[in-house]
Amino acid sequence: MASTDELRAVMESTLTRFLENSTLAVKNKDTSLFSALLSPDCLRYLKPTTFVKSYPFIKAVETNAEYEARMVPEVAAMEEARVKIVEIVIDPIKRHGSAHVEHWTKITGREPIALEICWYVDFTEDGKKISRIVEFIDTAASSKIIESILKLAKK
Predict the structure, then answer these.
(1) What is the pLDDT of residues 84-93, one digit of tens each?
(2) Is the pTM of this model over 0.85?
(3) 27: CB partners within 8 A, 6+ apart
(4) How would DSSP label each residue in the chain?
């Protein structure tokens, strides 16, 4: 059995790589990278609920496959994405983690948009996969991104 410090290091690496995969998913135009470090039964909860209700094509709870499918047109519209991890907190005893992230997105033909996201995750027993995600997004910036993508899709 791994020590608490070893487990914390594994969990931090898993969470860091999960967050960085959003950059790789856009670069490689591969939405499967969003779920590469998630357990097969992982559910993604998007918050706040008021934001989700504003966009009927976004579900409040999504499976890996549903999220990947929803992200296909978004990734196709993105020229570039970058992530700056501001803070990560890991609790190896409870198998929980959280992260505050600054996310930068460049939609084709548009100015870059920066947004903040706070992630709360649960890990599998060994810490190598994420088993549950709660994502709180910057609603103002996210709305700008969605509206830019919708305008691009109408062209």
Answers:
(1) 999 999 999 9
(2) yes
(3) 80, 81
(4) ---HHHHHHHHHHHHHHHHHHHHHHHHHT-GGGGGTTEEEEEEEEEE-HHHHHH-TTS-SEE-HHHHHHHHHHHHHHEEEEEEEEEEEEEETTTTEEEEEEEEEEEETTS--EEEEEEEEEEE-TTSSSEEEEEEEE-HHHHHHHHHHHHHHHH-
Judging by DSSP bridges, how do beta strands 96-107 and 78-91 pair with one another?
Answer: antiparallel
Domains and CATH numbers, the chain: 4-154 (3.10.450.50)
Q: How far is CA 144 from the centre of its chain?
A: 17
d(Cα 32, Cα 152) in Å, to the nearest integer? 23
Give tens-digit pLDDT for 5-48: 999 999 999 999 999 999 999 999 999 999 999 999 999 999 98
